[in-house]
Every structure is written in structure tokens, then in C-alpha cells.
Design goal:
Structural class: alpha+beta
Order of helices and strands: EEEEHEEEHHEEEEHHHHHHH
Number of strands: 11
Oligomer: single chain
Strand content: 5-15%
Largest sheet: 6 strands, antiparallel
Shape: globular
Mean pLDDT: 76
Low-confidence stretches: 264-286, 292-303, 310-322, 329-377
Radius of gyration: 50 Å
Helix content: 25-40%
Strand order of the largest sheet: 1-2-3-4-6-5
Length: 398
């Protein structure tokens, strides 16, 4: 432009960037004495570009957010429409990505701030439709600022282009933008997902700038690295889902990205704490049991009663008097207790004589063949004394 001052107020000092339909200049507001950014459209802009300029002015005038570039003024100079915007001194996200992948926490912070800005934009019924690294400015503190609403539109407004034309940058188009379907808020969420993925990997997911690049997302989904935190992998997969209805809202994305990641080192320790406590209880119980068992084994055994006969054939002693057995080791058989009395055999009664006579012979024959085994609950019979005649065993009617 031959004239370096627009509307006798804004002096153009240098070019900051060049777009398809406009240039952005570093300017000076001569009236207020401050630096500004001046976006100047070409003089040969067609009617569609003029309508886009008017739409951008109305949209920016209705938005106010820390992560958005505010508009100061607008006008026309010698047939050139222009916008006066706040100057964001810094760089762009595109230049930062060129230096390599960004740290995870840095990406989380950038994503949360941009998602919050998009939620504000969507809340006013506006779709940006051109979210990409070169349209994301970084101020002196490294904070992200979303710029360039040249392709933005109100969701209820009529289209300025036909449905068979793609509007936006091919590498960041949503599937519905490629197919010519209705474009809404999920398209911005999809583009933001690709931007965050590019920040993490340092490479553009869909390289190129033609139709083939735009169609690539219809054939394969973005490749999300699986070494990222699980919750971030799930979020990026949802943000870049092929069906628009599956994508979360911008507000939900901001909430998930701003949430602190689960990196609490105490959590695994709490998970093992009940097992450690239970092991300690088992060890203490085992020590107490061992101590008790050792004490029990070392106690002297009480004098036991007569030994319980086993299956080995034995003969009764012929001594005149019965002597208690020597002290023996504890046995698993039930010993004779002090409150049990030896069974005293009684002679059979008169009405049992016949039965006794009939069974005595059979019992003697059986006894001669195998030894008598006394149940564990009853003591063995005492040996006969020399001064008393032997008594016959008592038998009951069967």
C-alpha cells in the first residue's frame, strides 16, 4: 500500500504475516500511542470475502476472553477493509512445534486454555472452523491465544460457500468438513485434538495440503501414542473420533485437560497396606502359637491309666497285684481319666444263665483265635487277684 497510515490514525510499520485474503501488519495507534495489529484485506476482494470480513467483525465484537484476540476498531481505507486488533507480542505454536515435541504438562496447559476459549466461542453460537498451530499465538508468558476468525460462522447463519467446497486447512479438517456434511462445534474439537497430538509428537498427523490429505482421515484414524497416560489417550481418541456425536464438548475437554493427572506415589502403597497388615497378624499369631505349643510339649505328662490294648495279641499279667504302668509319651488315644471306674464283672442272673451257657463256648472260641479289643472309651479289665475266684463275664440279652 502506498499510503502507510490508515484512516489518519493507524500507521503500518511492518508485515507480521500473510494469508490468503489479507495481510497482518505491525501498526501504531497514533491517537492512543500504542502498538496494534492491523489486518488489511485485499482491495479486489469479492462479495464473499466482504461478507466474511463483516462476519468476522460482528463475531469478534461479541467475544471477550483472555485466550482470544480482542478487536479495537474496523473500517475501510481506499477500498481495503481492515481490522485493528490487540497486538500479541510473542511467537506462534507452529514455530514452537518446529523445535520438537512439547512436554506433556505444557501440552495439557495449552489444551486446557484453548478448550476453554472454544467453549466460550461455542457458547456464543460460533464455530471457528480453522483451528491450527499457525492460528494459535503465544504471548510473552507462553500463554496461548486463539486468533484469525476469518472462516468463523454462526451456526444459524446461511453458508457462504457451497457444500461441495472444503473450507479450512486440509491437515486439520474434521471428517464432516471433508464430506460436506453439516459443520458444528465438534469440528473445532476434532481440530484441537489434532493440534494437541502434533504438540506431543512433533509431527503433523496428516501431511500435505491437498485433497488426498483431507481424505486420509476418512480411511484411518489418527495414531495416538500408547505411552501417554491412559486418560489422555482416551481423550485424544474421543476428540478425533470419526462420528461427530462421539466427541466431547470443548468445555468437557477443558475440564479433563485441567484435571491433575493421577501421579500420587502413595496410592500403590495403600493398595499393599492391607496385605502387609494381614501378614503381620499372621506372623504374630504364629509366634504365639509356637510359644504355646512349645510350653505344652515341655510340660510333664500326667500319670496315665492302664495302657489301651492294641491290635497286637497280648496276655494278661499273672501278678497278684496290679502295678501302674511306667510314664509314657502322650498318645493320640483317649487315656483313662480319674472319674472312670474299672468295670466290675457281675455273675449272670438266673434268667440269663441259659444265654450265658450258650454264648460262652462261642466267645471262648473266638477269643482263642483273636485277641480281645476293648473300646477306647472303656478301660481294660483288671487282672484277677489271687485271693478271689475269677468271675464270669456278664452278658446281656442281645
Amino acid at each position: 500500500m502506498a499510503e502507510r497510515v490508515l484512516a489518519e490514525r493507524y500507521r503500518l510499520d511492518g508485515v507480521l504475516g500473510v494469508g490468503g485474503v489479507a495481510r497482518v501488519y505491525l501498526g501504531t495507534d497514533l491517537r492512543l500511542g500504542r502498538a496494534v495489529a492491523v489486518k488489511v484485506f485485499r482491495a479486489d476482494s469479492d462479495d464473499e470475502q466482504v461478507r466474511r470480513f463483516e462476519t468476522e467483525v460482528r463475531i469478534l465484537a461479541g467475544l471477550e476472553h483472555p485466550a482470544l484476540v480482542p478487536i479495537h476498531d474496523s473500517g475501510v481505507h481506499d477500498g481495503h477493509p481492515f481490522l485493528v486488533l490487540r497486538l500479541v507480542e510473542g511467537s506462534t505454536l507452529r514455530r514452537e512445534i518446529e523445535n520438537g515435541p512439547l512436554p506433556l504438562e505444557r501440552v495439557r496447559a495449552l489444551g486446557a486454555r484453548l478448550a476453554t476459549a472454544l467453549a466460550h466461542v461455542h457458547g456464543h453460537g460460533v464455530v471457528h472452523r480453522d483451528v491450527k498451530p499457525s492460528n494459535i499465538l503465544l504471548d510473552g508468558r507462553g500463554e496461548a491465544v486463539l486468533a484469525d476468525f476469518g472462516l468463523a460462522r454462526l451456526v444459524d447463519s446461511p453458508r457462504l460457500t457451497s457444500s461441495d467446497r472444503m473450507t479450512g486447512t486440509a491437515a486439520y479438517l474434521a471428517p464432516e468438513q471433508v464430506t460436506g456434511a453439516e459443520v458444528g462445534f465438534p469440528a473445532d474439537v476434532y481440530a484441537l485434538g489434532l493440534v494437541l497430538l502434533e504438540c506431543l509428537t512433533g509431527t503433523r498427523e496428516y501431511e500435505g495440503g491437498g485433497v488426498e490429505t483431507a481424505l486420509a482421515r476418512l480411511h484411518r484414524p489418527p495414531r495416538v501414542p500408547r505411552d501417554l497416560p491412559d486418560e489422555l489417550v482416551r481423550l485424544l481418541l474421543l476428540m478425533t473420533a470419526l462420528p461427530a456425536r462421539r466427541r466431547p464438548t470443548a468445555a468437557k475437554c477443558a475440564q479433563l485437560l485441567a484435571a491433575a493427572p493421577p501421579t500420587d506415589p502413595v496410592r500403590p502403597r495403600r493398595r499393599w497396606a492391607p496385605l502387609v497388615g494381614a501378614s503381620a497378624v499372621v506372623v504374630v499369631a504364629a509366634i504365639c502359637w509356637a510359644s504355646t505349643a512349645d510350653t505344652t510339649l515341655r510340660q510333664p505328662a500326667a500319670p496315665a491309666g492302664p495302657p489301651i490294648p492294641t491290635a497286637t495279641p497280648t496276655t494278661q499279667p499273672t501278678d497278684a497285684t496290679w502295678q501302674p504302668p511306667t510314664e509314657q509319651a502322650p498318645t493320640t488315644e483317649r487315656p483313662l481319666t480319674t472319674d472312670q471306674e474299672p468295670a466290675v464283672e457281675q455273675p449272670p442272673t438266673s434268667d440269663q444263665a441259659t444265654t450265658t451257657d450258650q454264648t460262652t463256648t462261642a466267645d471262648q472260641a473266638t477269643t482263642a483265635e483273636r485277641p480281645a479289643v476293648t473300646p477306647a472309651s472303656a478301660p481294660p479289665p483288671l487282672p484277677d487277684r489271687a485271693d478271689k475266684p475269677a468271675k464270669k463275664p456278664k452278658h446281656k440279652d442281645g
